C-alpha cells in the first residue's frame, strides 16, 4: 500500500578491534564452546547432544529438580548450579558410552 514511514537503518561500521574469536590469545580454534541451561531429572542426570548422539551426564540425585548451567568446550563439560554458580561436576564425553560418569564431582554436605 504505502511507503514505510521510516527509511531503513543501515548497519554501522564495526570497530576493527579483534573479537575473542579473532584474538591471537584464543589458541583452540577447532573446539566447540557454548553454554546450555537444563534441569536435573529425577534420576540425577542431564542430557547433552554431541556429534549427533544424545549422552546422559550423571550429576547426582541430590540435585534432582535443580536448574544447572553447562559450559561445554569440545568434549569437556563443566556443570554448575544456575542460581549460585557452584560447580557440581565435570565430564569428558566418551563416545563409546551412553551414560557419562563425572570425572570430578562435588560431594554434597
Order of helices and strands: EEEEEEEE
- Gap between N and C termini: 67 Å
Number of helices: 0
Shape: extended
Lateral arrangement of strands in the main beta sheet: 1-4-5-6-8
Which structural class should the secondary elements be placed in? Answer: mainly beta
Segments where pLDDT lies below 50 for 5+ residues?
Answer: 22-26
Annotation, overall tally of beta strands? 8
Approximately how much beta-strand content do the residues carry?
A: 35-45%
The radius of gyration over CA amounts to: 20 Å
* Average pLDDT metric: 82
Helix content: under 10%
Quickly describe the structure.
Helix content is 0%, strand content 39%. The protein is mainly β and 109 residues long.
Describe what this molecule looks like in 3D.
- This protein is mostly beta strands.
- The protein has a domain of 73 residues.
- 0% of the residues lie in helices and 39% in strands.
- It is built from no helices and eight strands.
- The strands form two sheets. It has a five-stranded antiparallel beta sheet with strand order 1-4-5-6-8, with no helix packed on it. Strands 2-3-7 form a three-stranded mixed beta sheet, with no helix packed on it.
- Strand 5 and strand 6 form a beta hairpin.
- It starts with 32 loop residues before the first strand and ends with a strand.
Amino acid at each position: 500500500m504505502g511507503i514505510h514511514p521510516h527509511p531503513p537503518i543501515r548497519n554501522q561500521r564495526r570497530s576493527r578491534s579483534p573479537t575473542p574469536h579473532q584474538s591471537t590469545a584464543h589458541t583452540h580454534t577447532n573446539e566447540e564452546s557454548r553454554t546450555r541451561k537444563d534441569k536435573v531429572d529425577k534420576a540425577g542426570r542431564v542430557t547433552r547432544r554431541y556429534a549427533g548422539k544424545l549422552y546422559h551426564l550423571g550429576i547426582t540425585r541430590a540435585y534432582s529438580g535443580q536448574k544447572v548451567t553447562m559450559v561445554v568446550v569440545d568434549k569437556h563439560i563443566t556443570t554448575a548450579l544456575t542460581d549460585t554458580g557452584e560447580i557440581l561436576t565435570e565430564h569428558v564425553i566418551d563416545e563409546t558410552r551412553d551414560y557419562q560418569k563425572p570425572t570430578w564431582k562435588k560431594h554434597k554436605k
